[in-house]
Sequence to fold (127 residues):
Amino acid sequence: MHLPHAYTLFTPAAATSPKVCRDFVRSVLTTLGAGELAPTAALCTSELVTNVHLHVQGQVHLRAVVEATAVRVAVYDESPEPPCPRGGIDGEAEGGRGLLLVAELADGFGVTRTRTGKGVWFQLVRN
Fold:
């Protein structure tokens, strides 16, 4: 198999989108032989897509790229506002930890501005 392989998915910013997107990423990684990264990638994907569902109107544009040495997942939305990780959150708060979790689990994490909004991405290195 020749890498890289790139896959794209569009979903509404709906309550069902985090599950659809994490299942999509899990399936892509498992099919392409990167199944060892699937649980972490699915969790990080779910966190990023949940942020779009909670804070942005419009569509989620997910792009997963599998390379020989790394996997990169980007979640694009139509808001120009950068995500705002919350630090020092009350231990009983129900939300606000998603970006902190992604930053902790991923080997790389960032935000890219686009013409129509932004993309929040993470990268996982393959062993």
